[in-house]
Amino acid sequence: MRIRVVLVDPIYEGNVGSVARAMKNFGFSDLVLVRPCEVGDLGLAMASHARELIDGAMVVGSLAEAAEGANLVVGTTGVRGLSTDRHLRVPSLSPRELADRLRGTAGEVALLLGREDDGLSREELAACDVVVSIPTSPEYPIMNISHAAAVLLYELSRVEAGEVELARPENLARLLDHFRSALVESEYHQHKLEKTMLMLKRIFGRARLTDREVQTLRGVVGNLRWGAVHRGGPEVVAEGPRSRDGGEVEGEGAAGLEGGGVQE
Questions:
Q1: Domain boundaries in the chain?
Q2: Calpha distance 2→109 (Å, rounded)
Q3: DSSP states of 94-156 as a string?
Q4: pTM (predicted TM-score)
Q5: CATH fourth-level superfamily of 2-165
Q6: If you average pLDDT over every residue of the chain, what do you get?
Q7: Any alpha helices (H) in the chain, and if so which ranges?
Q8: Which of 88, 118, 234, 262 is the most interior residue, by most CB within 10 Å?
């Protein structure tokens, strides 16, 4: 399991250096900076013996670039689920729960740490597969970014990698597109659509799906969509659905329960 630490719009160079130091403390080296402040002598001094992490950091202009290729995008928040943004922040995992879910898996995780003054935006949290929150005192729940990084990286450093390869992000995106199309076609409540899609994204993020499982789910959704159109559905066989006269069904809906969906 590879961990990519992403600092989004860091304001203070000292924090950048301190995060780099925490990364080296726990054996991590992949640092990505999104639109960072200038890191000068103070930042390098705070990094101490982890200066090479700052020198080698990837600097990008958008969160999409920073998270590109990651099997799982994890957002961090110090704000617990308010009624106005419950779907964004609830449910959230603790750092230990995140580590437990990653145990035995393989792939790349992008761990997003937001701005010192305002954290991650609603749009940025919505782009995350999983949300993590560190249990803190309700009297003062917001931690310094480098302290939060140290807690998270300590727990993640204890994860034992395995052979269960997490699904590729492009395949998960196709699965979500399948669900969205199915909901739209079924005339699902329009005002609930975006919240439902966010909930599905969170469910898939916590489920540790593999490419094979994503393929199966796409096949199931494809068959359900075909059945809804044809009022009664096809006879489903291993290689894909067939029409009532025995001919194979063509098009996207023909993805079988196991054999259809994403092609390797």
A1: 2-165, 169-254
A2: 6
A3: -HHHHHHHHTTEESEEEEEE-BTTTBS-HHHHHT-SEEE-----TTS-PPPHHHHHHHHHHHH
A4: 0.79
A5: SPOUT methyltransferase, trefoil knot domain (3.40.1280.10)
A6: 85
A7: 13-25, 41-47, 51-55, 63-67, 86-89, 95-102, 122-126, 145-157, 169-185, 193-206, 211-229
A8: 88
